[in-house]
Amino acid sequence: MKRKPEPPPLGRAPVDISQWEPNSQGSVAASFTQEYVDEHYQCWHCKCNAIFTARDQKHTYEVRKANINQRRILCDSCWHESLNVVKKLETCAEVWGESKMTRRTDKAFLANWLHLLELQETYAPYRHDIARKNMLRKLLAIVD
Prior knowledge:
This protein is mainly alpha-helical. The chain is built from seven helices and four strands. α4 packs antiparallel against α6.
């Protein structure tokens, strides 16, 4: 009978709570967190197995000062893809702000912006911009 391969040993890193952001320092986690341990999770977007390493946790919470209750839901690849989508969305919003009157009839621009908003939703179960999507759908209906 074949044995399942044993998972690799968990990585560990020491915790320095004094380096956490102030809200995290006052959290319940501050009283019982003694070390970071590799956390295995499944990417919300691509469903692949990923690891939030102890070293990455230390950097995230102590250097970047993220809240200790923040958890990873995307693998590194999907995270970078989602950041690219966010940058493109920011560009669309800037272009819209600068030339709204000409862009409101630009079908390609409106369709691309709507596509990016819908794509962003596949990377996270929150931050859905329903109002903006509705605006774009209405403008596209008028342009057709």
